[in-house]
Design brief:
- By secondary structure, the chain is mainly alpha-helical.
- The chain has one domain (about 1-165).
- The chain contains six helices and no strands.
- It has helices at about 1-10, 15-25, 30-35, 50-80, 95-115, 135-165.
- Helix 4 crosses helix 5 (about 95-115).
- It is elongated.
- The protein starts with a helix and ends in a 6-residue tail after the last helix.
- Bound molecules: zinc ion.
């Protein structure tokens, strides 16, 4: 989620973090199933360019429903406790949903490609994984952990500033 949180901090309402997150879950269903089956190759068609496009489309189509559910639940809670100014807009633009979904699958493809030897991201055009080991495995985790912490913090600050800007000034 590190890449998504940095993008969210930078782009605000222009990208959906829910559709980014949903894309992460959907794209890793295949490796999850293959792990249970004890397959030799875990990262198959879902971790190719074509797979990432298909998963991105599915994520973008499902995300509006998930956004309404998550944000609706959150808004019910904050309204219940009287924090009405923290109510979050429930509608997200279609471009924000699609951007989240495709940034989700493509960043996942690149980051997994750096770490997993069983991937062939450009299959069927190329059976090798040209991304492998361009960045060390532990560095990918380290960089993404920092990105997640920095991105989440900046996103919260950005949101807090926008909520504060909507308040009537005492003068
Ligand atoms: Zn993956």
């Amino acid at each position: 989620m590190g890449a998504g949180l940095v993008a969210k901090a930078a782009l605000g309402h222009r990208i959906s973090i829910v559709s980014f997150g949903l894309a992460q879950v959907l794209i890793d269903i295949e490796p999850g199933v293959r792990m249970i089956r004890d397959d030799d190759v875990l990262h198959g068609i879902s971790h190719t360019l074509w797979g990432a496009i298909v998963v991105g489309v599915v994520a973008a189509l499902l995300a509006p429903w998930l956004i309404r559910m998550i944000v609706g639940r959150y808004n019910t809670e904050v309204a219940h406790y009287g924090f009405t100014r923290w109510i979050y807009p429930e509608s997200v633009s279609a471009p924000a949903v699609w951007l989240g979904a495709f940034l989700g699958t493509f960043s996942h493809l690149v980051l997994d490609g750096l770490m997993h030897a069983d991937m062939a991201p450009f299959a069927p055009l190329m059976s090798a994984n040209p991304l492998l080991d361009m960045v060390a495995h532990d560095d990918v985790y380290g960089i993404m952990t920092v990105c997640a912490a920095v991105g989440a913090t900046l996103w919260m600050i950005r949101w807090w500033l926008s909520v504060r800007a909507q308040q009537p000034r005492p003068d």
